[in-house]
Amino acid sequence: MGDKKEAVAIATFMTVLGVTIGKGIVYLLTSSMSALTEFADSVTDIATSLLTFISVRLGNKPPDENHHYGHGKAEAIAGYTIGIFATIAMFYIAREMVTRLTTGYQVHANQEAIYLTVGLIVVDIFLVAINYIGYRIEKSLALRANTINYLGDTVRGSGLLLAISIPSLDLPIATLLFTFLAYEVYRLLRETTSVLMDESPTDLTLKIMEALRETKEVKEIRKIRTRWTGNTYHVDLTLALDPSYTLEEAHKISETIEKKIKNLSSSKIDITTHLEPYDPS
């Protein structure tokens, strides 16, 4: 399964190199602010794809002596770094937009640029498809970040096509594209930060709570800790059972509970269960 993630990451990186060159050519042909915005975004996409490839390779490594919970957070670190790159690009774009708004500029309508932009939109659709399929199969945060990013690129590419076809719309469309980019960056930083800060996945926690309450052998739920590390849920449970159970019986109950919890999600769930004797007093 890890090989699939790496294949998607490599294909994405190579394709993005071509897309970035294409958007740079569109800008040189038209002097469009929208094209410049898209070119700057594509430069960050190169960093995105490279970091995704590196993080996917690290994330595929199994737990070892120094990383007991695996290397899944490498993908969240990559996603967060991508968000920082994009934020820097946004500041540059905002400055350029203000400069052009105050000094004025002219967009050059160019037929070759229009054809090239149509081709770039088709490529962006391809990138969305392969990254989304990879995300659905692997549940990779890095591939999800790519999917969101290239979906935005597809929408913005359509806006760029309109801007260079009707030059008077260039600045309004550039402003809209900038807004899309800002929203995508916010979502990406919010999601990766929650992983890096070990934020508890509420939905899974509630499902576990419900499953445990339906298990008659569990007399008391004393602790539930859950976190997501990028490719695996980690669950720590402290449960109280009737002290009359033998060690073997308690172990079988624990195995049944863990199996039930693992069926709550299609993602991998690693569970540590601590059992204590129940004291009604």
DSSP strand content: 5-15%
Strand order of the largest sheet: 1-2-3
Fraction of residues in helices? Answer: 55-70%
| Radius of gyration, in angstroms, nearest whole number | 24 Å
Helix count, per DSSP?
8
Could you say which structural class the secondary elements and strand pairing correspond to?
mainly alpha
Let me know the average pLDDT.
83
How is the biggest beta sheet arranged? 3 strands, mixed
* Unreliable stretches covering 5 or more consecutive residues: none
Described by the principal axes of the CA atoms, the overall outline is elongated
How do the helices and strands follow one another from N- to C-terminus?
HHHHHHHEEHE
The separation of the N and C termini measures: 50 Å
What does the model show?
The radius of gyration is 24 Å and the shape is elongated. It has helices spanning 2-30, 33-59, 73-103, 111-138, 141-165, 170-196, 202-213, 247-262, and strands at residues 218-228, 232-241, 268-277. It has 281 residues and is mainly alpha-helical. The protein has a three-stranded mixed beta sheet with strand order 1-2-3, covered by helices on one side. A hairpin with a 3-residue loop joins β1 and β2 (232-241).
